[in-house]
Amino acid sequence: MKKININRLLVIAxxxxxxxxxxxxxxxxxxxxxxxxxxYYNQQFEQAVALxxxxxxxxxxxxxxxxxLAQVRLAQKDWKPxxxxxxxxxxxxxxxxxxxxxxxxVITQAFEQAAGKFDQALQKQPNNPELWHQLAKIRLTQxxxxxxxxxxxxxxxxxxxxxxxxxxxxxxxxxxxxxxTQALERVLYxxxxxxxxxxxxxxxxxxxxxxADAIKLARKSLNNLVGNDKKSYERRLxxxxxxxxxxxxxxxxxxxxxxxxQAQSLAQVLAE
Length: 272
Prior knowledge:
Layout: H1 6-23, H2 26-41, H3 45-58, H4 63-75, H5 79-92, H6 97-124, H7 129-145, H8 151-167, H9 170-190, H10 195-207, H11 211-223, H12 230-249, H13 253-271
Helix pairs in contact: 2-3, 3-4, 4-5, 4-6, 5-6, 6-7, 7-8, 7-9, 8-9, 9-10, 10-11, 10-12, 11-12, 12-13
């Protein structure tokens, strides 16, 4: 049996550890990143991905590497991984607000890529309710991911889902109503006294046969309505119509009579 040279084994083990430490050193990571960025700028995206992933195996908690990888996926028009990678970067970014802004840009651009595909499809099929529904879902997810998304982003979701509903069958309308509910609830969290959105949610609750909620929301919309212009009168009328229909469904005829009288008075004012 061959005699084992212990000293030789120790030397080999020492060299292996030295090589591993060298590969894991900041200079090794920086070299990988430099080469990966060169690949990225030369549009050699898969080579860039491979190098960034090698860098992540050495420094898995480095938020900048996750950001660079998100950039590559965005350049490849692979929008879902781009978003999740940018979110991972944000989770590790701590107080690095500059990096958070960069990640936000990646996320926004990725959602625009996704929406752009449906926008193009809708130019060819403008009356396709499924396309409008999918676009509404993408915009809903965008507003949810970008936590501080402005009110306008949520309004856009409502408009898209409403457009789909006008063209949709009952099954798709149910899906759209889920999207609308999520958007309205967020809008009313941001603007709890907005009469327009309170009315939208009241109508939705009416469609869902939640009669008491429909009445409550329509009354809240009425209480928050200001102005005496035509639009304000029309919204008052529409709220009283919702209340009338909900009261009818509940067999509350005293409520029906009162709501109907209010609606008729407003209809006369608008007819003048």
